[in-house]
Amino acid sequence: MTENEKLLLLKKGDTKVLKKLYVENREAFIAFGKKYMSSEEDILDVYQDAVIALQEQIISGKLNNLDCTVKTYLFGIGKYMLFEKNRKKQKTILGSYKTDEVEDYESIEIDYYEETTNDRQRKLQAVLSKMGKKCKEILTLFYYRGYTIEDIKEHLNYENKNVVKSQKSRCLKQLKSKINE
Amino acid sequence: MNKSSLIEQYFENNLSSEEEIVFNELLANDKEFAEDFHFQKEVKAAIKKEERNKLKKELQDLERFQSGRKKTVFSRKWMAAASIAILLTFLGALFFMKQDSFSNQELYATYFTPYENVIHPIVRGGVENELKTDAFIAYEKNEYKNAIKLFQKAHKEIKDPHLLLYQGISFLAIKEPNKAIKILEQYIFTKPKYNAQANWYLGLSYLQLNNAKEAKKHFKKVSTSSTQFKKEEVKELLKKLP
User: Fold this and answer.
1) Which residues of B touch A56 (CB under 8 A)?
2) Which domain holds residue A139?
3) Most buried of the four, A41, A168, B54, B69, by CB within 10 Å?
């Protein structure tokens, strides 16, 4: 599989490919992480987050013209996540580790660990998890997987875009009325 | 323009620059529009959290499987490795009894270790030059390519000749002996404190280039220097070289 084919599958949300990538780079990441952190468990925890963040970056199309390998990019994100974990654990700021990297890994890390959980968010999540399969699927494809309405029409075999649109707005309305209950 | 399609296009990343202007105007002035948009943003955030949690669980499961499998594989691999190691030691002993010659590359590999950072203790937030600190951090983490860049920049800024020594060693560490030689010669030209060190690494650079004659010249300089630096090693090396 070439790097581009890999990216294409990852963009479609292929978890098999993602897991393969996880296994392939696992050992190397542990070795890399040991430079900053001693606990292997912590390193692996960060590694998982980095893999998920990588997947999100790919989905949002940020890796389309990447001039490094997927691995380099993954480790770049992971590095900043390791710093952040260290910072949280020791509760001191160890200063900036910025190097002259081309990619802005730090903002990916910040976005990933951003605390957004308030009561309303928790309620929203609870309601979402109880929603019907159809609604969940459409909303996830649109808001997380980066599908356009057109893509969803193709993917779920809807007759036309308007059906998708009205289905989606029905789901949103349903959500809204439930959290305002 | 349809308001709900504008929001849709926002999430699809499909707004043209004109549409973006309309979008921002509506967001500022149309309360219902703004509410609708913010609600969808919240939905997006909630779905993101949920999907992350799901994927995290899957990866954790994979990890449990992975580390469980590793352990059994490891013990079998280890046994194999151990028996090979014993065999190799035996063969190696036989080999060395017969002959005591090394290639220049082997000698290089045996003797090369990067010189420790003796000139710039790393203290974050100190008054010392930030670039220099970054350079030594990279050097100590064995990130030599990065270190070289930083040493170059720092040297341009503060002209501390010792930075050349470490830059040279970094070049040697990434197997660029020609560049290492150039920089180390430049360092020696400044009549530096660490002259013996520079000659030692110059010698190693020539070893890497398979030039034993030049290497010996520099090792001899180390052996006659007034410091104790690598005295023993140089003695050994001079014996082993043709």
Assistant:
1) 48
2) 119-179
3) A168
